[in-house]
Write a structure and sequence with these properties.
This is Transcriptional regulator. This protein has 127 residues and is mainly α. The protein has one domain (4-94): Multidrug-efflux Transporter Regulator, Chain: A, Domain 2, CATH 1.10.1660. Helix content is 67%, strand content 7%. It contains five helices and three strands; from the N terminus they run αβααββαα. It has helices at residues 4-7, 21-28, 32-41, 59-74, 79-125, and strands at residues 19-20, 48-50, 54-57. The chain has a three-stranded antiparallel β-sheet. Helix 4 crosses helix 5. 14% of the residues are buried. Mean pLDDT is 84; it is low at 1-7.
């Protein structure tokens, strides 16, 4: 994601559901033709297309574009490097989610084991 200091340079993202390519261009300080090019290069970037092939970006798309912009223009990554960085973030995020799910399952299984052990102890005491 963008560093907090870089967020100050770009305008705040309005609380809208969809943004046109012109609005995103202004919000991210990137020309529309660059946005169209990035759509081809970054699979994470998939705006909704409606009548006449008009693009409508959602808030997550705008955040992704700002992240791509930061990687390319501020951090000096190449397109390929930025693509790898973005997919690495997604993999790390997914890995964290799996790790949390596994921890939760362990806690739940330990609870089940406690209930089963309590039942077994009670059945031994009261045959």
């Amino acid at each position: 994601m963008l560093e907090p200091s870089h967020n100050d340079e770009l305008p705040a993202i309005p609380g809208k559901r969809y943004f046109t390519i012109g609005e995103v261009s202004e919000l991210c300080d990137v020309k529309p033709h660059v946005l169209r090019y990035w759509e081809q290069e970054f699979p994470q970037l998939k705006p909704v297309k409606r009548r006449g092939n008009r693009r409508y970006y959602q808030r997550q798309d705008v955040l992704t574009i700002r992240q791509i912009r930061s990687l390319l223009y501020e951090q000096g990554f190449t397109i390929g490097g930025a693509r790898q960085q973005l997919s690495g973030d997604a993999n790390a995020e997914q890995s964290t989610r799996y790790h949390q799910m596994i921890k939760q399952m362990i806690v739940e299984l330990e609870d089940v084991l406690d209930v089963l052990n309590a039942d077994r102890i009670n059945s031994v005491r009261h045959p």
